[in-house]
Specification:
CATH superfamily of one domain: Metallo-dependent phosphatases
CATH architecture of one domain: 4-Layer Sandwich
Number of strands: 19
CATH topology of one domain: Purple Acid Phosphatase, chain A, domain 2
Strand content: 15-25%
CATH class of one domain: Alpha Beta
Largest sheet: 13 strands, mixed
Structural class: alpha/beta
Distance between the termini: 71 Å
Shape: elongated
Radius of gyration: 31 Å
Amino acid sequence: MTEQTTRPMRRYAYALGRFFGVLRRNPWTGRVRVAAMITLISVGGVVIGTMLFAHANVAVGPFRAEMSISPSVLGGTEVDLPPLGSLHLDSHDGPLHLKVNLAALDQNRTEALIGDPTAISSAGENAVEDVRDGVIKLGIRTLGIAVISALVLSALIFRNIRRVAAAGVTALVVTGGSLGLAAATLRPESIAEPRYEGLLVNAPAVVGDARRIADNYGRYSEQLQQIVSNVSRLYTTVSSLPVYEPEANTTRILHVSDLHLNPSAYGLIRTVVQTFEIDAVVDTGDTVDWGSSAETGYASSIPSIGVPYIWVRGNHDSAAIQAAVARQRNAIVLDNQITTVDGLTIGGIGDPEFTPDKSETPDADPATESPLLRAGTQLADTIRGSAKPVDIALVHDPAMAPPLSGVVPLVLAGHLHKREVSLLAPPPAPEPSASAPSAPPANGAQQPPATRLMVEGSTGGAGLRGLEKDDPTPLSLSVLYFDENRQLKAYDDIQLGGTGQSNVEMQRNVVGAKAEETPSPSGSATPQSEPSR
């Protein structure tokens, strides 16, 4: 390079060197760097100390429960009940996760419970105070451990009294703020909607009766007492597990759909029927794949369920399949008909389309109404003409549901192979004509109640189709709890890992626990769905 070329480069290098030299000599730059290091070291000490030492033992009922706190983004609480499973609660927001392990039993307390069954109830009554004292003890311990860990770590690195003290104060603020955030966002009512993972047969015994919890929603103490009492019985009973005591006036309906010839589907349904004491099963179709006469024998397992089996036709089910289902002694086939089972009045209609060999439902002529909507309208007219109110409407494709909005409180569907729960858009108000302008509503007139649409996943794991993806389609079914007034109070979504897997997960949902947004009225409220294949 020439002197003329290199001169500007040397000038820029010299200016850049002077700039960084000024930064190094600037006291504020050094202070920011030191402050960042102190913060990093103190937070590191907090995390290490919390993960290693933030645990405490507390007696809860017959258990020696170990409570521990760990850093987390989402927060929440996990209750481990080995070998029964675990409960997960959305109890608070991050950055701390509370874990409670109930694996260890106190021998003296357990023997006392076995000798005096009434002591189980008293153990549950004391659970609230035990848990509260344990959490407070753990919080204080965590705060002290976090500060000490930050002090020790900063002393090893800085060897400076002032910086070590600053790290301790930082740890105190971080840990205290985290505990304060958890306390400020505490949701005791979350115990009403636990997510259960573990053995399916223990699920109702561990989480309790959904109707009872729904009726007592918000009463944290009663719900915690019930769970502790139930788990105590499970651990202290050596014979069968007579711990699930549902309300006498509860009607339990099992919703299944899209079995798709899975040979294990009926076995799963039988297990849930017996474990949850189901009164009736509703099946929203797609029992088979092709609707052929060779598949009619699959319906012969329906009598083994042992309770009424209400069924509507899916788009994979032919007339021959419908006839085969109707021949089963406990089956009730609904095709624009209404029936009553255990006090619940149920209406249903079959899918108007038979498309087992197509991946997509053909689009309707724009000039005519969709056959799915026509079928939904037909069922809505039948329900309006019923002598008594209809509580549940059954369809296969959720695209059939919009005409039922405001006509029935609950619509059950399938077809999508995934779980969805929503409120249907209310029916549009009639447009006033020029000759008859709209009049104000009469005094006392009310809008029709919102209609809830519950779309079930595939109880058969989508059959062989469920194996086409990298992750098998899970087996899904739901238990619905109705009170004596035929109102849906709660529901349990049960999901088993897809074919070849064994994980079981159950999510308790209390109706009305969370605010639900009702869509605005629309003339074309057809759900946009991707049909099953």
